[in-house]
Specification:
By secondary structure, the protein is α/β, with parallel strands linked by helices. It is built from twelve helices and 22 strands. The chain folds into two domains: about 240 residues, 4-Layer Sandwich (Metallo-beta-lactamase, Chain A); about 140 residues, Flavodoxin domain (Rossmann fold). Bound molecules: MU-OXO-diiron.
C-alpha cells in the first residue's frame, strides 16, 4: 500500500494486516487490524509519527523510500506494534531523533536496544516546530501503558492518538465510512485494553477537551474525520452509568448448569432485564469483554469439576476481574455432583471489582423445583436492584 495524503504534506503510512486474528496471543481480531504511521513534512523538518509491527517493516521502508530526510520519529507508545520498526527506520535515517516521554525511553531501550543518545524526551505540553507545523505533545498515561502520549498538530487541528480511540479493522477506507462497524470495533478495543484504566482515561479525555480537534488519526483502524463518533462513545464507555443488563458467561458439562442458565435468563427477561449470554465453550472472548462495558450485573454459570469451578468459568472470572468493568453486582450459579469449592474459589478471584455479591445458587445434580424458584428469586433481586439504582 502506498502512502496516502490526508492533508497537504501530511500522509498516512503503515500497513494493513488483513490476516491477523490474535493480538498479544490473547485478544481476538475478527476484522484484522492496521498499524498506522503518519508522515508530516514541515517547512523545515520532517517527522514520522509511530512505525509498524516488525513483520510489516518492509512496507513502511518502501513508503519511506522517497523521503530524503527524516528528523524525528515520534513514539507515542512503546508497545512493539508501533515502536518495533524504529530500529529499522533509524538504520535508514541515522540522524533522526526519537521523540518520546521520559517514561517511554527506558522501555524502548529495554525492548529495542535503541542507543540512549538518540532520544529527545518531551514533557507534557511541550511543542516541537517543524517550520510551519507545530507538534504539541500531550501526556495521556495509561492508554493503556504508563508511558503513553498523543500529538496535537496545532495548525491542522489533528490529534494523533496512537492506541487511544483506535479500532482493530483492516480496510482500505482511510476514513470512517461505516460508523456502526467502527463503533463496534472501537468498543471491543476499549473493552479489551482500556477499560481497566477508565478512571485515568477520563482525566485524559478531560485534558483533551481543551483542544479544538477536527480530526483524530489513531494508530489502529480508520481516521475519524468526524471525531464526535468516537469522542461521544468514549464519554459513554468511561463515564456513563451501568445499564439494566446481566452478563451471563457460563459453561456446562452435562446440561444441568445450562438448564439453570436458561431458566434464570428467562426469569430476568420476564422482569425486564436484558441478558447477554455467553457459552464459554464457543464464545469469542472479545464479545464478552464488550458486553462487560455496560452491564450492571455479572452472573457466572459454573459447574464444579475437580472440586472447583470449571476452568473456562475461572478464566472468564479472572478476565472480568482484570478488566475492572463498572458492574455493581455479581453472583454465581451452577451445578455440582458431590461437593467442591466453586463459590469460594470464584469469589476469591474478584478482588478488583467494587461489587455487591448476591447469594450464589448451586444445585446438586439436576436443578430441582426449589433450585429453579431460587433462580427466579435471584432474578427478582437483580431487577429490583437495577431499578433502585436507576439503571435503564
Ligand atoms: Fe497498539 Fe498498545 O499497542
Amino acid at each position: 500500500m502506498d502512502r496516502r495524503e490526508i492533508k497537504k504534506n501530511i500522509y498516512w503510512m503503515g500497513a494493513i494486516d488483513w490476516d491477523r486474528r490474535l493480538f498479544d496471543s490473547l485478544i481476538p481480531l475478527p476484522d484484522g487490524t492496521s498499524y498506522n504511521a503518519y508522515l508530516i513534512e514541515g517547512g523545515e523538518q520532517t517527522a514520522l509519527l509511530d512505525t509498524v509491527d516488525p513483520p510489516m517493516t518492509e512496507q513502511l521502508l518502501e513508503q519511506l523510500a522517497t523521503v530524503s530526510k527524516l528528523d524525528y520519529i515520534i513514539s507515542h507508545h512503546a508497545e512493539q506494534d508501533h515502536s518495533g520498526t524504529i530500529p529499522a527506520v533509524l538504520e535508514r535515517f541515522p540522524q533522526a531523533k526519537v521523540v518520546t516521554t521520559p517514561k517511554a525511553k527506558p522501555i524502548l531501550i529495554d525492548a529495542l536496544g535503541i542507543a540512549e543518545d538518540v532520544f529527545l524526551t518531551v514533557n507534557d505540553g511541550e511543542t516541537l516546530s517543524l517550520g510551519d507545523k507545530t507538534l504539541k505533545f500531550i501526556h495521556t498515561p495509561w492508554v493503556h501503558w504508563p508511558e503513553t502520549m498523543v500529538t496535537y498538530l496545532e495548525e491542522d487541528r489533528i490529534l494523533f492518538s496512537c492506541d487511544f480511540y483506535g479500532s482493530h479493522i483492516a480496510t482500505t477506507d482511510l476514513y470512517v465510512r461505516d460508523r456502526g462497524r467502527v463503533y463496534e470495533a472501537a468498543k471491543r478495543y476499549f473493552a479489551e485494553i482500556m477499560m481497566p484504566f477508565r478512571h485515568i482515561i477520563k482525566r485524559n479525555i478531560e485534558k483533551l477537551s481543551a483542544y479544538d480537534i477536527q480530526m483524530i488519526a489513531p494508530s489502529h483502524g480508520q481516521i475519524y474525520d468526524d471525531p464526535s463518533l468516537i469522542l461521544d462513545a468514549y464519554q459513554d464507555w468511561v463515564s456513563g452509568p451501568p445499564q439494566n443488563v446481566v452478563v451471563l458467561p457460563y459453561v456446562s458439562m452435562h446440561g444441568s448448569t445450562a438448564q439453570m442458565v436458561d431458566h434464570f435468563a428467562s426469569a430476568l427477561v420476564d422482569r425486564g432485564v436484558r441478558v447477554e449470554l455467553f457459552n464459554l465453550a464457543v464464545t469469542d472472548i472479545g464479545k464478552l469483554a464488550m458486553a462487560l462495558v455496560d452491564a450492571a450485573t455479572i452472573v457466572v454459570g459454573a459447574p464444579t469439576v475437580l472440586a472447583g469451578p470449571h476452568p473456562l468459568a475461572a478464566y472468564a472470572t479472572f478476565l472480568a476481574n482484570a478488566l475492572r468493568p463498572k458492574a455493581k453486582f455479581v453472583s454465581i450459579i451452577g451445578s455440582y455432583a458431590w461437593g467442591g469449592m466453586t463459590v469460594e474459589t470464584l469469589a476469591g478471584m474478584i478482588s478488583n471489582l467494587k461489587v455487591e455479591v448476591l447469594e450464589p445458587i448451586l444445585c446438586k445434580g439436576v436443578p430441582s423445583q426449589t433450585d429453579l424458584e431460587a433462580l427466579e428469586q435471584l432474578a427478582a433481586t437483580i431487577a429490583q436492584k437495577h431499578a433502585e439504582n436507576g439503571f435503564v
